[in-house]
Design a protein that fits this description.
mainly alpha; 5 helices; Four Helix Bundle (Hemerythrin (Met), subunit A); 56% helix; binds zinc ion; 140 residues
Length: 140
């Protein structure tokens, strides 16, 4: 046992580069996250308008461009709920960008295992591997 670590953070050394993302992968995910952040911000703007403009809320018109949210989501309250969701997602995106900076991106916060690459592609701001995410969802 040598004691010549200067001043490592108290975490295990391996957590520094736990996933071993290559620089271009870091860039790749940073770009994904930034794109996603832009999209969420835009969406939030749109939702806020819908929620706050009575005519827009009254017309059951069709922001069909919100393709991923299902079809009946257009009452005012739901829009406000959605804004909350978007805001939470934005927060997660910010956190993911920070983890990217710190080199801890892509590691499950629950079990410390690397998160599957495909999962990161689909959900670049996730904190958990699929197993842990399922456990956590089931527990709620
Ligand atoms: Zn996990």
């Amino acid at each position: 046992m040598k004691k010549d670590h200067p001043k490592e953070p108290t975490r295990k050394a391996e957590s520094k580069k736990a996933v071993g993302l290559k620089p271009q992968e870091v860039e790749h995910f940073r770009k994904l996250l930034l794109d996603l952040r832009n999209r969420y911000m835009q969406k939030m703007g749109e939702l806020a308008e819908e929620a706050l403009t009575p005519e827009a809320a009254g017309m059951s018109a069709s922001p069909s461009h919100l393709g991923d949210v299902g079809s009946d989501y257009y009452s005012q309250e739901l829009s406000l709920d959605l804004i909350e969701n978007e805001r939470a997602a934005l927060y997660e995106i910010e956190e993911a960008l920070r983890r990217l900076e710190q080199g801890t991106y892509g590691v499950c916060e629950e079990c410390g295992q690397p998160i599957a690459r495909e999962r990161l592609e689909l959900l670049p701001y996730t904190r958990y591997c699929i197993q842990c995410a399922r456990k956590i969802e089931a527990g709620q």
